[in-house]
């Protein structure tokens, strides 16, 4: 029994010694680890931070690459448009009929509106004469980076808005069309729309030549909207070409004044007048009534815009008489001194007579007095087929080729 207790005691003592020995080794290991960590903690922290940064870079360049590229393009990078000046329209003597003047337009990047408050919105509303409701609709389009606030503002309005120092609101240069002769030449020149593109008349017909090409400039902005760098390939501005018309502004005004007086005196609904160069056929004046002021587009009506001289179809009337006589003279059927009995007479069921009766007239007199009787008798002396071919060769039933929008071809 004593021996057994001794053996157990010795066994327990052995286990305790072994345990103490293992604990001593562990303590030494922990002590060495503590000493290592204490002496190299800066290196470990640096390794951890570097690992985090590398992981973040990998994440941004893979998972978030497309999103960040889009944000860079929309928030920092921007392509500025430098508008081209539209070409001028002048008369044959160089007098300006349509010119472009530089104006300011205001636009906003809604994603940059960091310091906008109620007071500044109210100030914007007063300066631009806009309701706060309309302003908020424009300023709250957060899915866009370019929204026009108001175009064609005065220099005073533009500067007053910029003086508010609102992040994300900018000024850009545009051009406004001005027509010095106003309603005197409006049907010839026409007018432009809000985007400065031709909408009527020569402005529309020659829009491609007048327009030119806008320039492009790629820039980078900081968070305050300041340009910090220009990059990429920039495109230079190419201004539009000038267009010179055959119109003589002096004759245009004379024709305008004469037509207006006659329309007013006869209480007519409308009228048209043309002045042509008899040798070349060039249009020296083209006037219509009613007319309109192209500088005030808000008051223009469709009836006023109608260019009757170019798009309406008329019966030739008395202008056919000298053409008939010219054909007869060319065919040696008559001479300027040939005499005709100009008493009233009947052709079929139609009685031909003149307002100013004269029993006998020469060819010269027939032209001078515009005699229906004399002209009709000369016409009956001509061959029908020859006359048809003659009218066709002159251009009856065909477009004149002025280039005006909606030009009529006539009926023959």
Report what the structure shows:
The chain is of the alpha+beta class and 412 residues long. It is built from 15 helices and 14 strands. The chain has helices spanning 2-62, 65-76, 118-128, 132-139, 155-162, 186-189, 201-205, 207-211, 249-266, 302-305, 308-311, 320-330, 363-368, 372-379, 384-394; strands spanning 77-82, 89-90, 96-108, 147-153, 169-178, 215-221, 227-235, 243-244, 271-276, 283-289, 339-341, 345-347, 350-352, 360-362. The strands form 5 sheets. Strands 2, 3, 4, 5 and 8 form a 5-stranded mixed β-sheet that branches. A 3-stranded antiparallel β-sheet has the order 1-6-7. Strands 9-10 form a two-stranded antiparallel ribbon. Helix 12 packs across helix 14. The mean pLDDT is 83.
Whole-number average pLDDT? Answer: 83
Report the total helices.
15
Main sheet properties? 5 strands, mixed
How much strand? 15-25%
Gyration radius, to the nearest Å?
45 Å
Low-confidence stretches: none
How does the overall form come out from the CA principal axes? elongated
Number of strands: 14
The helix-and-strand class reads alpha+beta
Helix content: 40-55%
User: Could you give the distance between the termini?
Assistant: 149 Å
- Encode the helix/strand succession as letters: HHEEEHHEHEHHHEEEHEEHHHEEEEHHH
């Amino acid at each position: 029994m004593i021996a057994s207790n001794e053996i157990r005691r010795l066994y327990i003592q052995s286990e305790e010694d072994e345990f103490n020995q293992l604990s001593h080794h562990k303590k030494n290991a922990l002590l060495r680890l503590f000493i290592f960590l204490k002496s190299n903690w800066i290196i470990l922290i640096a390794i951890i931070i570097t690992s985090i940064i590398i992981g973040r870079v990998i994440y941004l360049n893979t998972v978030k690459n497309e999103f960040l590229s889009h944000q860079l393009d929309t928030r920092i990078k921007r392509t500025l448009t430098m508008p081209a000046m539209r070409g001028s329209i002048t008369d044959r003597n160089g007098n300006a009929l349509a010119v472009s003047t530089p104006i300011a337009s205001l636009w906003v990047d809604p994603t940059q509106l960091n310091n906008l408050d109620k007071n500044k919105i109210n100030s914007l509303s007063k300066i631009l004469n806009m309701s706060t409701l309309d302003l908020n609709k424009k300023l709250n389009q957060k899915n866009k980076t370019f929204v026009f606030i108001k175009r064609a503002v005065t220099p005073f309005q533009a500067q007053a808005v910029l003086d508010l120092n609102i992040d994300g609101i900018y000024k850009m240069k545009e051009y406004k069309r001005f027509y010095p002769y106003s309603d005197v030449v409006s049907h010839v020149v026409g007018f432009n729309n809000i985007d400065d593109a031709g909408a009527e008349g020569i402005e529309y017909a020659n829009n491609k030549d007048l327009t030119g090409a806008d320039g492009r400039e790629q820039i980078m902005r900081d968070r305050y909207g300041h340009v910090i760098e220009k990059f990429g390939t920039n495109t230079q501005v190419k201004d539009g070409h000038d267009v010179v018309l055959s119109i003589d502004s002096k004759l245009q005004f004379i024709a305008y004044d004469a037509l207006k007086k006659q329309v007013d005196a006869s209480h007519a609904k409308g009228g048209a007048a043309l002045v042509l160069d008899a040798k070349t056929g060039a249009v020296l004046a083209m006037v219509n009534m009613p007319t309109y002021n192209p500088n005030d587009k808000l008051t223009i009506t469709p009836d006023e815009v109608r260019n009757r001289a170019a798009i309406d179809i008329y019966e030739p009337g008395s202008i056919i008489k000298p053409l008939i006589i010219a054909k007869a003279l060319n065919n040696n059927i008559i001479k300027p001194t040939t005499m005709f009995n100009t008493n009233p007479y009947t052709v079929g069921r139609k009685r031909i007579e003149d307002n100013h009766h004269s029993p006998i007239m020469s060819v010269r007199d027939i032209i001078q007095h515009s005699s229906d009787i004399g002209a009709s008798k000369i016409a009956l002396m001509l061959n029908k087929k020859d006359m048809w071919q003659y009218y066709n060769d002159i251009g009856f039933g065909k477009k004149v080729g002025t280039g005006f929008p909606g030009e009529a071809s006539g009926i023959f």
